Amino acid sequence: MNKHMVALLQLLLPLVCEGLHPPKQKCNETLMLKKLPECEKSFEDTMMLINPNQWCNLTEFIMYYYIFSKCTENKAMDVGCFWPNSLADGFITGIHRQFFSNCTSDKITWEDPPDEILTTLILIPIFLTAAMISLVVWCSKRADVFG
Ligand SMILES: *[C@@H]1O[C@H](CO)[C@@H](O)[C@H](O)[C@H]1NC(C)=O
Ligand SMILES: *[C@@H]1O[C@H](CO)[C@@H](O)[C@H](O)[C@H]1NC(C)=O
Ligand SMILES: *[C@@H]1O[C@H](CO)[C@@H](O)[C@H](O)[C@H]1NC(C)=O
């Protein structure tokens, strides 16, 4: 990255962080933490329908994971919280630990993808979510540093 790019990024990132500030309605974190377990419950229920030796099989769980991810997003938005946020992030990490802790990337199997376009549509928001979480974390760290 050259000097101009860095300067441009320094100019743009504060604007991005500005845009990430929570919506008008105040975020009720207590309420959000009370609602998120509903998403966990339905995700657990659906994962129980899958044979545990298939838990690293992306083809099997991707749809359920997508629904879970959407669920946490909706619940957070419902109570005026921005999504993703660090609380919901910790919650999702817990889910990963519970179900995917034994999955390594070479063990994650991707056979017979249901439909290429559908797959892309599902994966894009997941990657975007990961990117957004990093950005939100970065922005909040920056807020700590620069007050
Ligand atoms: C947040 O939600 C909790 C639980 O429903 C409620 O008791 C509390 O009054 C709410 N706080 C705000 C600031 O709305
Ligand atoms: C993963 O799941 C798909 C869809 O159910 C199945 O066709 C495939 O055989 C599974 N792969 C493995 C390695 O079990
Ligand atoms: C991971 O492997 C350990 C040891 O084999 C097992 O006890 C545990 O239940 C597994 N966890 C998951 C999420 O499959």
Which properties best describe this structure?
globular, 5 helices, binds 2-acetamido-2-deoxy-beta-D-glucopyranose, 147 residues, 71% helix, DNA polymerase, domain 1, mainly alpha
Task: Provide a quick synopsis of the model.
By secondary structure, the protein is an all-alpha fold. The protein has a domain at about 25-100: DNA polymerase, domain 1 (Orthogonal Bundle).
Describe this structure in words.
Helix 2 packs antiparallel against helix 3. The protein is globular. The chain is built from five helices and no strands. The protein has 147 residues and is mainly alpha-helical. The protein starts with a helix and ends with a helix. One 2-acetamido-2-deoxy-beta-D-glucopyranose (NAG) binds at residues 54, 57, 59-60, 109, 111-112. One 2-acetamido-2-deoxy-beta-D-glucopyranose (NAG) binds next to loops. GO terms for molecular function: coreceptor activity.
